[in-house]
Design brief:
With 300 residues, the chain is of the alpha/beta class. The chain contains ten helices and eleven strands.
């Protein structure tokens, strides 16, 4: 296989019209350049340059090879340019995964800042309803990093972003609407807007409820925690939702749980040494976990 150096020597000589001028362009000695040309011609199996009394010119084969040689050198140059830009974190592509309820309140501000500051970085986003599914996606190399609840399945690098409260959305007019907080025992026998098995909140809430001796009785199921809050506000039943899943200016009745329930939000990092990944994770950490102002007031 021809080396890039041999192709570079051939193109330089063809452009300069002589071995002496080509050597000067590349800052090589004439013997070194002649050796590269001889190796290239030997590998191809035919002369590429016609030696003239005053200089050289490409042979018919040389003219054909010259086109591909230029293209190869240009491609190699692009490889270096792209690689250096990626190493510097100014170009590239990041494949992101995020828990559905965290995309808007947590991830969107960082995405907005990056689309303005790093216009040559492509950001691909996939939303998930399960932390375990995100962990598998990072492990399998389908995404570069994932933002959401921690998963015991993931054995790689994990960066903590903070915690968020889980709250109860209570239908208006229900007796619990006047309570300061909702206990797990008060959920027993009540209609619950629960989650589809594909959403990791379902198994978690069932496990926590069982630890309090309570069985949650679903009235309906949804895959989305924001939808669960809206269905509870519509009167279907009580919904347990992470506070970040509450829509902006949510008009429903929101109560803290007693005892409080929180979940840790992390970044599962698939390529911790990558410059783009490091920068994105640091930006997420600097912003921290959001707490909607209205809900902060309502829960105090």
């Amino acid at each position: 296989m021809p080396t890039l150096r041999a192709l570079e020597c051939f193109v330089a000589v063809a452009d300069a019209g002589s071995i002496t001028a080509g050597a000067a362009l590349l800052h090589l000695s004439q013997p070194a350049l002649s050796h590269q040309l001889a190796s290239l011609e030997a590998e191809i199996g035919t002369p590429l340059l016609e030696r003239l009394p005053r200089g050289v010119r490409p042979t018919p084969t040389g003219r054909a090879v010259l086109v591909d040689a230029r293209a190869t050198l240009a491609a190699a140059g692009r490889v270096l340019t792209t690689g250096r830009a990626l190493a510097a974190g100014t170009e590239g592509r990041l494949r992101l995964a995020c828990a559905e309820s965290l995309t808007v309140p947590l991830l969107a501000p960082t995405l907005r800042a990056w689309t303005r500051k790093y216009r040559t970085v492509d950001l691909d986003l996939t939303e998930f309803a399960s932390a375990d599914a995100m962990a598998d996606a990072v492990t399998n190399g389908d995404v570069d990093l994932a933002i959401g609840p921690a998963s015991e399945r993931y054995a790689g690098t994990v960066v903590d972003l903070g915690t968020e409260d889980v709250v109860a959305v209570v239908p208006e007019g229900l007796d619990l609407a006047d309570s300061d907080a909702v206990s797990w025992h008060e959920l027993a026998g009540r209609p619950i807007v629960h989650y589809h098995p594909s959403n990791g909140l379902r198994a978690w809430f069932d496990t926590v409820a069982a630890s309090h001796g309570v069985h949650l009785e679903p009235i309906t199921h949804t895959r989305n925690s924001t939808t669960a809050a809206q269905l509870a506000h519509a009167g279907l039943g009580i919904a347990l939702v992470p506070v970040t899943a509450l829509p902006p200016r949510f008009p429903g009745v929101v109560k803290p749980l007693a005892p409080p329930l929180q979940r840790t939000v992390v970044v599962m990092v698939g390529a911790p040494a990558d410059t783009l990944v490091q920068r994105f994770v640091e930006d997420l950490r600097s912003r921290g976990m959001p707490t909607p102002r209205r809900e902060r007031r309502r829960l105090t």
